[in-house]
Design brief:
two-stranded antiparallel ribbon; alpha/beta; 20% strand; globular; 9-stranded mixed β-sheet; single chain; DNA polymerase, domain 1; 2 domains
């Protein structure tokens, strides 16, 4: 009988604690020292990380039950006053967006000034379209444009070449050794490893204090394409790819960094007129990428970039050359 009388009092205490504005994850309902340590060890060390998490993520990471996970999320969102904001306030936040130059004035103009931070830019092409060359160029240009900028390069096809970085850096009049020191490269050997590396970027920012402004994944779909073969595995592949894209989108938005992903293409046999190439990943990749660019070879050794999708820019295309020192206008 005494236990029945005590239970409502405990529930009242939990409700009262959740109503108070939490200052850290230790203030959240159901979070003790052990739970906080588990959360922090995998990058969930602040209220924003908890606020944008799903109950399933917290159940898996911290070992809490569903009810506690929901209360933790609700208390975090309440403390951060998350909800609707006016278009005017959103415009003010948009003013913090930076842009990374491609090195080509015409290409930058097509992209509204360059690749913007806070979003995902996808470039896809057939073999030799210039996707990786652009990745190397961006890795140098972001350090030229932003002080102490750090680049994370997730390499899935063994395409990163420090020699290429040195060429581009020297062409821009920069210290190539300094540029290379600020590029963190990791080779991903399968799709699970690739997803883990993307999640570890949070540690580089929060635990090591690195000013990561560009995250490159070259290429996004190579491992997924190799591991999930046949129509029977398509649903599993798309679900896994969707989770990966959400992690990338969350990193871009929370830390105002640019995510640049390259993508492979396939030929659609039912297209009889026009270009039959289509990006791998279908609607999952297309919907999660804010800006999409299709690259192809042009005349006299140039490359053509076609803006396929953007939330605010008109479609268009430009031509440029890939040179020893990076991208150049025609």
């Amino acid at each position: 009988m005494e236990q029945e009388l005590e239970q409502p009092e405990q529930e009242d205490e939990i409700i009262e604690s959740s109503e108070k504005k939490a200052q850290s994850i230790m203030d959240l309902p159901g979070v003790g020292a052990a739970t906080a340590e588990k959360l922090q060890s995998v990058g969930y060390g602040d209220l924003m990380a908890i606020a944008v998490a799903t109950p399933g993520e917290l159940i898996e990471i911290a070992g809490v039950n569903e009810s506690t996970a929901k209360r933790m999320i609700a208390a975090s969102r309440s403390a951060l006053d998350m909800g609707f904001e006016s278009g005017e306030d959103f415009l003010k936040r948009r003013q913090k967006i930076n842009r990374i130059s491609t090195g080509s004035a015409s290409f930058d103009k097509l992209l509204g000034g360059g690749l913007e931070t806070g979003s995902i830019t996808e470039m896809y092409s057939a073999y030799g379209g210039g996707k990786t060359q652009i990745a190397h160029t961006l890795a140098v240009n972001v350090q030229k444009d932003m002080d102490d900028a750090v680049v994370v390069f997730i390499d899935t096809e063994s395409t990163f070449r420090p020699e290429r970085i040195i060429q581009i850096a020297q062409g821009a009049g920069l210290d190539s050794n300094k540029i290379l020191k600020n590029i963190k490269v990791a080779r991903a050997y399968n799709s699970d490893h690739q997803m883990l590396l993307a999640e570890k970027v949070e540690d580089l920012i929060k635990k090591q204090g690195l000013n990561v402004k560009l995250l490159i994944v070259d290429s996004l779909t190579a491992h997924f394409r190799a591991e999930f073969i046949g129509r029977g595995t398509l649903a599993d592949r798309q679900q896994k790819l969707n989770k990966h894209m959400h992690v990338l989108a969350k990193l871009a938005d929370m830390h105002n960094l640019t995510v640049y992903v390259t993508n492979q293409v396939m030929a659609k046999p039912d297209i009889f007129f026009g270009d039959p190439t289509e990006a791998i990943g279908g609607h999952i990749v297309a919907h999660n990428s804010q800006t999409r660019v299709y690259l192809r070879r042009g005349k006299k050794g140039c490359r053509v970039a076609k803006l396929v999708d953007s939330p605010s820019l008109p479609d268009g295309e430009v031509s440029f050359y890939l040179t020893e020192t990076g991208l150049k206008d025609i």
